[in-house]
Write a structure and sequence with these properties.
Layout (H helix, E strand, L loop, with lengths): L1 E6 L4 H12 L3 E8 L10 H4 L9 E3 L10 E4 L3 H14 L2 E4 L6 H14 L1 E4 L5 H17 L4 E8 L9 H13 L4 H4 E2 L14 E7 L5 E9 L2 E9 L3 H14 L5 E3 L1 H5 L5
C-alpha cells in the first residue's frame, strides 16, 4: 500500500481527497495536516470529512507527519506548496500537486527540486475530463489554424483566490502552442473601454466569479459564419480529488522529475 498524507486536510478539497484516498485500493491515508492554529487540529481526518473515525488525527504542519509518507497530495496555496516541496525534497517523498496560482518562478523551483530529488505529478486540474479537454483544444486549434479566433471563458465560486484559473491558462497554453504562439505574448486577460479591433493572434481569457460554481470552462473557436464551442462543467470536486488519488497511486516508483496527468492517464502521445 502507498502511504499518503494530505495537505490542507480540513479544506473543501482536502476533505474530498481524503474520501478518494480511502476509496482507492492501493492507497492508505497515513497522515493529514493543517496550518498551525487551525481549529481542525486534533480532530479525526475521517470524521471531519464525513467518513467517520479513521484513527488519523489532523496535526499541525507537514513536519508533524512527513515521516509517515510515501507521497504528499497538496492542493493548498502557491507559497505553501513551494515550502512543502522543499521539505519533500529533503526526504525524497513523491508529490501530487494540484495547487493553482503558481508563478513561473515557483514552477521553475518545483521543477528543479523534483528533477533532483523526487517524482512529482503537477497539473492545474486533475479531473480526467479536463485533461481530455486539454488535448481536444490542442488538436482543434491545430486543425482550424489561424482562421479561427480563440477565446476562453472560465467560471468559479466566489471564494477562488486566483484568476484566471490555472485550467484556463493551461487551455490557453495548449491552444497557443498548437498555433505556434506564446500565450505570455498574445494572451488578453481583460477588456474594458475602447479597446479597438481584436488582433488576429490574441487569445482571450475571461473570468467569472460567483456563488458556489465548482468550475466551468468554455473554449470558443470563432470563425467566419460559424463557431465551435468545447465545454467542460464540473459539478463536484470529487472529479479533481479522484484524479489526485489516481496520480498518487501512479507516481511512486516513477523517475524523479515533473510528470503530468497526461502521463498518469496515458494521454501524453495522444
Amino acid at each position: 500500500m502507498t502511504r499518503v498524507i494530505v495537505a490542507g486536510a480540513a479544506g473543501r478539497m482536502g476533505q474530498r481527497i481524503i474520501h478518494m484516498v480511502q476509496a482507492h485500493p492501493e492507497l492508505e491515508l497515513s497522515g493529514a495536516f493543517e496550518r498551525p492554529g487551525s481549529p481542525a487540529i486534533g480532530k479525526d481526518a475521517g470524521a471531519i470529512s464525513g467518513l467517520g473515525e479513521t484513527g488519523i488525527r489532523i496535526t499541525a504542519g507537514l513536519e508533524s507527519v512527513i515521516d509517515r509518507a510515501d507521497v504528499l497530495i497538496d492542493f493548498t496555496f502557491h507559497e505553501a506548496t513551494v515550502t512543502f516541496a522543499q521539505q519533500a525534497a529533503a526526504r525524497g517523498i513523491a508529490m501530487v500537486i494540484g495547487t493553482t496560482g503558481l508563478s513561473a518562478v515557483e514552477l521553475a523551483t518545483l521543477k528543479e527540486l523534483a528533477e533532483a530529488h523526487f517524482p512529482c505529478v503537477q497539473s492545474p486540474n486533475m479531473a480526467v475530463g479536463v485533461n481530455v479537454l486539454f488535448k481536444l483544444v490542442e488538436k482543434t486549434a491545430a486543425i482550424l489554424g489561424d482562421a479561427y479566433d480563440v477565446e476562453i471563458v472560465e467560471a468559479h465560486h466566489r471564494m477562488k483566490k486566483d484568476a484566471p484559473s490555472g485550467t484556463a491558462l493551461k487551455l490557453g497554453q495548449m491552444a497557443a502552442a498548437a498555433l505556434g504562439r506564446d500565450l505570455a505574448t498574445v494572451g488578453v486577460m481583460e477588456r474594458n473601454g475602447i479597446i479597438g479591433e481584436r488582433t488576429d493572434k490574441e487569445i482571450g481569457i475571461q473570468t467569472i466569479r460567483g456563488g458556489d460554481i465548482v468550475g466551468e470552462h468554455t473554449v470558443y473557436f470563432a470563425g467566419a459564419g460559424e463557431r465551435l464551442e468545447i465545454v467542460h462543467r464540473a459539478t463536484s470536486r470529487d472529479n479533481f480529488a479522484r484524479g489526485a488519488a489516481l496520480a498518487a497511486a501512479w507516481v511512486t516508483g516513477q523517475p524523479k522529475g515533473m510528470h503530468t496527468m497526461f502521463d498518469v492517464l496515458g494521454l501524453a502521445d495522444f
